[in-house]
Amino acid sequence: MKGMNLLKKELTLSGWIGFTISFSFLQFYNLYFFHGHILHLFVFTLLLLFLMGLISRISSKLLKQKDKRISKINLIYSIIVVTIVIIGMDIAIILL
Description:
Keywords: Membrane, Transmembrane, Transmembrane helix. The chain is mainly alpha-helical. The chain is 88% helix and 0% strand. Helix 2 runs parallel beside helix 4.
């Protein structure tokens, strides 16, 4: 039970948004061009799991700040930046 609570804390909304966008983009590449390598998908999934853990730690620290308005703005900025980084990683892995 303790592990499930930890898992729920790690998988934040921003992590799932980035994971969904980038994973669907990579799947579209594999299905459309038919020459995507399964190794790209495996490496990319590991990178996304690492990023989701990093995002959840950053967002939990931001939401613990005293001024909730500033922490929500910082959280929105971090979601936007991480989504851009994930899409950039997606393009870089496809070009490898």
